[in-house]
Amino acid sequence: MNISAKWITTLVLTFSSLALVFVLNPDGQLRILANLLTFAGIYALAAVGLNVHFGLTGLLNFGHASFMGVGAYVTLLLIPHAAGREGEINENGLPFLLALLIGIIAASLFGLLLGLPAMRLRGDYLAIVTIAAAEIFRLLVRDLESITGGVYGIINFSSALQKYRPVFFDEAVISLDLAPAQIWVGLLSWISVFLVLLLLKRLSSSPWGRALRAVREDEDAVRALGKNAVWLKLQSFMLGAGIAGVSGVFLAFNYGFVETTIFIPLLTFYVWAIMILGGVGSLTGPIFGSIIFWAIISETDKIASLIFENADGQQLAGVRFMLVGLLIMLLMIFRPSGLLGKKEELLLNVK
Amino acid sequence: MSNKLLEVKNLKKTFGGLKAVDVEHLSFNKNELTSVIGPNGAGKTTFFDLVSGFQQGDTGEIYFKNKKITKTQPYKISRLGLIRTFQLTKVFDRMTVLENLMFSGSSIKNDSFFQSILNTSSSKKYESDLEERAFEIMQDLNIEKMSESYARELSGGQKKLLELGRSLMKNPDLLLLDEPLAGVNPKLAEDLLEKIKNLSDQGITILMVEHNIEAVMKISERVVVLAEGKVIAEGTPQTVRSNDKVIEAYLGTAHE
Amino acid sequence: MIDQLGNGLLLGIIISVASVALSLLYSVTRIVNFAHGEIIALGAIMTLFFSNPVDSRVIYLDRFSPLGLDFVISAFLAVILCGVFGGLLELILFRPLRKAEVGNIAILVVTIGLSIFIRHLYLIFATGRVQNFPLELERRVTYLFFDMTPRNFRVLIAGIIVMVLIGLLLTFTRIGKAMRAVRDSGELASISGINSDNIILITWISSSMLAGLAGIFQGVINDIRYNMGFLILLLVFAGTVLGGIGTSFGAMVGGLLIGIFVQVSVAFPFMEGHIEAKNAVALGLMIVILLFRPQGIFGQKERIS
């Protein structure tokens, strides 16, 4: 398939999936669309980060949820919030942007830490280590209730970001009968997606990106040519983790709370599904992958009702996740390059 | 003794009781083209791995340019000017031939994250110089037509050429070639041999492991014969060829 | 502490059996099977399906009428079913992928998709409720130093017997030897007349039967839930990696060690009040071991050459 055909398919699929959402929901179309696009933006950002790890460097990272979690927790704990069973209020805090910056750095450092095992481990071992490390992170956050709020989580932090909403923005959004708070989060995450993509476009065609791709192809050869493959891998881990951190922050703001069940391994697998759908190694792939993915997810109720009469919550969740699992399998088997991945650069036989 | 480029003392490596390498002393002089030969399992590739830092010996010392490089990371050894190739060619499959070469030649500074973000005019200049150098090498190796092909699309022989070219981008002082002719068609093998000879004439010290005895004898100035990890003979091709031990251990079986 | 050791042995035997199964599959096929947990759960769920008494007020699989078979017969049938399931996975999914020369990493991702798919199939058809086998409650009895119920003790003994049997089968039977041959070099094995397709099929079947058995153990000792396999999967990975991935003996010991470590760690002074995080300690141990000894305790450094 040539390049333009790939793009036409992608755009047709993206718009028709959105159109389907419109058709299937006679009421509140705009709200549903706004909701799904907000999630799509946040997850696209996470998938862009994962693409740095896997697409660019070939690192099999299955602990992405923890990078998102570190970013979210560190940022939220630094701004005014309430945490724990008693909802203990902490009114003092840093300005949002400063807290976000520290959150990004923390996520990157966690990436560095998680990358250390990657120094010596082959791909499949790395998959096990990263998913295990992410679970350790989650269990610790749940356990350290006095700091993180444990299972009760963190709430009442939204105003730190929402207070920057301009008045004209509110007026415009309300006139469309939409919730300004969510649109604000969605808008900011899409802006972040584009800023990060601009940065990555520059980086991936640069000597640094070239070096990462070489690491992806053959570490031994990289070493034999006098390059420090370990350090390159760690840099990749840090950059991707930092991007995931931002995504985690927006995810928290979209929910209006955080707690540890958000950052379970399934979150990582969602992001993987989006990355594969968009195309491994494709810069813009995650944008379209994410929109289509969330369009499908938002319509699972309809799909479930085709299978069950009066499906209950469990069945709805079951159908939704089954679809995700099926999507991952079918893509990997029949179209591993996804929508926009390059067939020539397919990561089929990575060792 | 300033002529010594690489010196190996008492180097031993065993795998579960099996002696893979057991070399008392070997040294290699500047500008020499030396071949290491020996039957399968003689420890030739392990010897290369030890010298280039990809494996650690149990005992012994290795000196390169009079500097001890035992227990040094491969990339650090490489930065000293000792560049190796691999028996099973390791090209960067999903990068173009040009990218393979440019990556190799690019300096640490040029590769750095921040330099890459800034993309200053000096780094652009550096990259275009690099590209020019890569094209020179590609022309020299007759692969310039493939510059935009992915490396995995190349034939076995072309991959060997690419690997050689990639090593040359580093301007090596010592080039370790691990079976450069393996899997290469006879016509190309002849060309490749010619290239290697030329490189040696240009002043690059070359150490090569090769199974093709005729080829080895034709171009080597010195031959080292390994069997069961030990050096059983060394000298000019003529002396080695007539050595009884060698005939028994290696040539005899090879000509059966 | 002794109590924890007894609990540790019980958890250890579950993980150990599951780890051997995972390791067996990995060593022959090089597949890191994330859907392993779902086969574990299948063993327990199917046993429950067969054994749930007809007059039970606990209606499990709501949409199916209870069969009320004897527990041991149910367990036996469930293990066979797991084997059939594993065999079908190989025939329908993994063999075609192998023939199409799909890479290991792609297959790993496929197993993740498969895991998510099957697990939520269970959620839909077997419900999300926590269940128990229809077995009578028992009092704990002291065996040597350990207090445990007779039933749990029998599980422990059964687990040990299974381990010994596997060890013997792998070492002395033709199939065991053939498996090792395929593991060491598929190509070489096929030259020497071994049909590696059949060996891989047998490996899938036996690995899945073992996994199912581990699931039944888990159901007896703890309880049954749709995601029980996934909950224990990381510990199974830890056991496999600790012993040295690809060595069956290593996986046995590694699994046992992980189980004991998880339960005993509860008694560590610094763990006071942090019992929920006990799995984190075991997973942390796995990562540390991988950092300093990637080949695990019993694995051999792969010879590079």
Word description of this protein:
- The complex is a heterotrimer of chains A (351), B (256) and C (305).
- Helix content of chain A is 71%, strand content 2%.
- With 351 residues, chain A is mainly alpha-helical.
- Chain A has a three-stranded antiparallel sheet with strand order 2-1-3.
- In chain B, strand 7 (174-178), helix 8 and strand 8 (205-209) form a beta-alpha-beta unit.
- Chain B has 256 residues and is an alpha/beta fold.
- The longest helix of chain B is centred in the middle third of the chain and has 20 residues, at 121-140.
- In chain C, strand 1 and strand 2 (146-148) form a beta hairpin.
- Chain C is globular.
- The model of chain C is unreliable at 55-63 (pLDDT under 50).
Labels describing this entry:
heterotrimer, B: 256 residues, alpha/beta, Rossmann fold, 2 domains, 4-stranded antiparallel sheet, 11 helices, 10 strands, 41% helix, C: 305 residues, mainly alpha, two-stranded antiparallel sheet, 2 strands, 69% helix
What is Rg of chain A? 20 Å
Number of DSSP strand runs of chain A: 3
Quote the beta fraction of chain A.
under 5%
Structural class of chain C: mainly alpha
